[in-house]
Specification:
It is built from nine helices and 53 strands. With 882 residues, it is of the alpha+beta class. The chain has four domains: 101 residues, no CATH class; 112 residues; 219 residues, YVTN repeat-like/Quinoprotein amine dehydrogenase (Methylamine Dehydrogenase, Chain H, 7 Propeller), CATH 2.130.10.10; 281 residues, 6 Propeller (Neuraminidase).
Length: 882
């Protein structure tokens, strides 16, 4: 066979034209070595399992020990036996399969930490090490000079000491010789002198009394002491050079990670047979322990399957909030019914008592295992009885409050620390319901209905966070810390998740009534994937959010190389968007100015306004839709609209054609000459879904339609093209979570975001339908009753709040800016808004029943108006439209 003309197909990478070497088992993606690195480094795919392409085709020839005629299917690492297809008995009578999964997940977590943290930033670490080496060389050069100088001083001192030692020795030798000479002279005189005169003896006595005594020992001791002091000073100089242990080379997370502009929902987990989730503790990225509302603890995975069920938990409702934790060996530590602290082994078979109720003294409420110190933190409390005397005649009655503390135990169960009061002796804790630890060693406690109390590792009080703005009420529930040392806390008062820095400074509301949960009650941070798990007490769902990403310094090297290798391609120049142009030309006025107002004669109320053209607007109420001018006179009248309340039933396109919803819930179009009505889109086949609002998109020329469903109450947004065909139906966000209840009014921002006035919030999604944020009022968590909504040329979002009777102004990211129109008796309750893009004026309908008016406000002006020759302007300073 001639193979010269045979064609062979080489399997390529899905991202780039390189050859395939890796496969992703979690998503259908073929990868080359470089794209494989990018795939496992991305926090969105950090938990994907990437295997070698060649390893998937290597046959395994291991033989089953129990059935020698069959190959093994898997190996049990707990009993070291291989299993084949016929080993069903071994698989059914044990939990080895689940233990293998836990073991495998733990090993995968370690591999992810190595590949995604250590290997990813090896280049950054090498650069920092080079800088440290250069700095150390410069610093050590100064120390080297000092050491040489001090060494020379020490050498001179040693030489002086040796010289003095030799002098002392010579003096002692001379003294000994003198004594010997005098003794021999005296002996000689006694022996040979016969007379009574002893000249030598008398001469020596006279010299001894007349000559000063020389105390060699005293002088040498002073010299030795002086030299000793000088030597000690040299030693002190040498000891100033301190060598400290710096530990392993690492880089701070602040330089590697950063907050995203907004959290993104990654996935949703439904817990079966449950009405809520009090507390969560992750084992791996796919396995976690959760305590239910009935204080049962289960081991579940991300698909919602129950792998293990534990019933030995307290019956007290509040004890389930932080009643379990996981240590570094993945063993479950929990509070049992008798308020002992027990430990469940990793194989889920052996339960041992870690601490008894007698050892704890007080009743334990929450526990947390510190992975940095391998110690157990226990939050405890007791009742504090107080006597209250109602009157002088009545007897004293007793009442009680709670007082608590935090204790620390080591791995053997020995008490190492007790934290009860502050430096002034005041009580720090009342009812600790959750406890955790920050990266700097701070102990962070969620104190029931009071504050978030933070102490340092030694137990000294650092601060207490009581809510934002300062002085507002806080009801802390779930709490956790992340890799950036942020403190995250669930506030039951405002139904938000608040983000603080490590010093207790409020940063932002990370989540405000998240869709699918509404009331967040517990948090858990996954250090491997940097994702946040959020649970609710009322709903059996756990949502996983991604809100941390890597720094921009870690870029796609393949894309950079591709750009650098294409010098012939002309890069496209960035064009100035209309949004940027308006932000450069326009600015907000200090306060809005009322231009004119009028009363619509043929309507009793005003539910929605659509700007038609100069001095003409469409105004709708129940069963009526009229075209009116600025004097209030009716130019055209339509009655074929449904009986609805505060819904955007009509919209006008760029050609002046009116889109509206009729009584049969069909979408019709009225021509700009007001003579011809055609059906644009008929009612859907499902009668449960009815159109509630319409909006024509000036950017794409599409029609956005809000649909509602009564049972259950939910909504969705659909997009229709110019021919009336549905092009992009949207009901949920990217994780199938309902984000709309009743989409009453729809509009669109300059950046393509879809802004919807819903039942109790303003819901904003991207053009593709991914949920961005939900605005629920100011301050965050306060009730909101939205009505009319619109956007302006500066991408502001303006919404009427019927509850506070004000108009709120937000930026494009949902941040509250100001009350554009505060509450006013003359204005009444604002109900609808419309923005005129030509004159930059705001049309507002407000009032009460039968007393509605339409107000026209000017609230924008030009920053630096150009000359009349360049840009013609109207008399009030705005550019004339084309």
């Amino acid at each position: 066979m001639d193979t010269s003309m045979t064609h062979y197909r080489v399997r390529r990478c899905s991202v780039c034209p390189n050859d395939l070497e890796y496969l992703c088992a979690s998503c259908p993606c073929d990868l080359c070595p470089h794209c494989k690195e990018n795939h496992v480094q991305d926090l969105g795919t950090i938990d994907h399992r990437v295997v070698s392409f060649h390893e998937t085709y290597l046959p395994v020839q291991e033989i089953c020990l129990k059935h020698p005629d069959h190959l093994y299917r898997k190996i049990c690492k707990w009993c070291d036996r291989t299993d084949c297809f016929h080993c069903k008995e071994h698989e059914q009578i044990s939990l080895h399969a689940m233990r293998n999964k836990i073991k495998h997940q733990k090993e995968r977590t370690s591999i992810h930490i190595i590949t995604n943290e250590a290997l990813l930033y090896r280049g950054v670490l090498m650069e920092s090490i080079k800088i440290d080496v250069n700095i150390c060389q410069n610093i050590f050069s100064f120390y080297h000079v000092d050491m040489l100088t001090n060494a020379q001083i020490l050498k001179d001192l040693v030489r002086r000491v040796l010289r003095s030692f030799h002098f002392t020795q010579r003096c002692l030798n001379q003294k000994i010789k003198m004594k010997r000479y005098l003794s021999s002279a005296e002996i000689y005189e006694d022996t040979y002198e016969q007379t009574a005169i002893r000249l030598v003896h008398s001469l020596l006595n006279k010299k001894r009394t007349c000559l000063p005594k020389i105390h060699l020992a005293h002088h040498t001791s002073q010299l030795a002491m002086k030299e000793l002091l000088e030597k000690r000073s040299v030693i002190d100089l040498l000891t100033q050079i301190q060598v400290t242990e710096k530990g392993k080379g690492r880089i701070e997370n602040e330089h590697l990670l950063k907050l995203m502009p907004g959290p993104e929902l990654h996935q949703s987990v439904t817990l079966p047979n449950s009405h809520g989730c009090f507390h969560m503790t992750s084992v791996t990225s796919n396995l976690f322990w959760a305590s239910y509302i009935d204080n049962n603890i289960i081991l579940s995975n991300t698909t919602g399957d129950t792998l293990y069920h534990l019933l030995d938990t307290p019956s007290d409702l509040l004890s389930g909030y932080g009643a379990h934790t996981v240590n570094s060996s993945n063993e479950l530590i929990y509070i049992d019914k008798e308020y002992n602290i027990k430990k469940l082994s990793m194989d889920l078979k052996t339960t041992t008592t870690f601490l008894t109720r007698a050892q704890l003294k007080l009743r334990p409420q929450c526990i947390y295992w510190s992975l940095t110190t391998n110690e157990l933190l226990v939050g405890m409390c007791k009742k504090k009885i107080e006597y209250v005397e109602l009157s002088e005649e009545s007897e004293k009655i007793h009442d009680y409050t709670w007082t608590g503390g935090v204790t620390r135990f080591n791995e053997t169960g020995k008490l190492t620390q007790i934290i009860y009061g502050g430096d002034t002796g005041s009580e720090l804790f009342k009812y600790p319901c959750k406890i955790t630890e920050n990266n700097n060693g701070d102990i962070v406690v969620s104190d029931w209905s009071t504050a978030v109390v933070v102490t340092d590792r030694e137990g000294r009080h650092r601060f207490s966070y009581t809510g934002h703005p300062p002085g507002s009420k806080l009801q802390p529930r779930g709490i956790c810390t992340d890799a950036l040392s942020h403190i995250l806390v669930c506030d039951d008062e405002t139904e938000t998740v608040q983000l603080l820095d490590k010093d207790g400074k409020f940063l932002l509301h990370l989540l405000i009534r998240p869709p699918g949960i509404i009331r967040p009650h517990n948090l858990n941070y996954d250090v491997a994937t940097h994702r946040l798990w959020v649970g609710s007490e009322d709903i059996n769902k756990v949502l996983v959010y991604k809100y941390i990403t890597r720094q921009d310094a870690v870029i796609d090297q393949y894309q950079t190389t591709t750009i650098m290798e294409s010098p012939n391609e002309n890069p496209t120049q960035e064009t100035e968007t209309p949004q940027d142009r308006h932000e450069c030309l326009l600015q907000l006025m200090s306060s809005p100015e009322l231009q004119q107002s009028f009363t619509v004669k043929d309507v009793k109320s005003c539910y929605h306004i659509s700007y038609f053209k100069l001095d003409l607007v469409w105004v709708s109420e129940s069963c009526n839709l009229v075209l009116t001018n600025t004097t209030g006179s009716t130019e055209h009248h339509l009655t074929d609209i449904p009986v609805d309340t505060f819904s955007g039933l009509h919209s006008v396109n760029s050609e002046g054609e009116l889109f509206f919803i009729d009584r049969d819930y069909n979408i019709k179009k009225l021509s700009n000459d007001l003579n011809t009505i055609t059906i644009f889109a008929k009612q859907t086949d499902d009668p449960n879904w009815t159109p509630r609002s319409v909006y024509w998109s000036p950017s794409g020329g599409d029609l956005l339609v809000g649909l509602g469903k009564a049972n259950p109450e939910t909504g969705k947004i659909s997009r229709y093209n110019r021919t009336g065909q549905q092009t992009q139906p949207r009901q949920h966000n990217n994780s199938d979570q309902e984000i709309y209840k009743d989409p009453k009014i729809i509009t669109e921002n300059n950046n393509g975001d879809i802004v919807v006035s819903d039942f109790d919030a303003v819901v904003v999604t991207e053009r593709g339908g991914r949920h961005r944020f939900s605005y629920t009022g100011h301050p965050p968590g306060s009730p909101l009753k939205p009505r009319g909504v619109c956007t302006d040329a500066m991408s502001h979002i303006l919404v009427c709040d019927n509850r506070s009777r004000t108009v709120h102004m937000l930026d494009e990211n949902g941040q509250f800016l100001s009350y554009l129109l505060p509450k006013s008796q003359d204005l009444g309750a604002p109900s609808s808004l419309s923005y005129d893009a030509n004159t930059h004026r705001l049309w507002l309908a407000a009032g009460s029943y039968k007393k509605y008016k339409v107000f026209v406000y000017k609230y924008m002006t030009l920053k630096d108006p150009p000359t009349d020759e360049e840009h013609p302007q109207d008399p009030e300073g705005f550019p004339l439209s084309n």
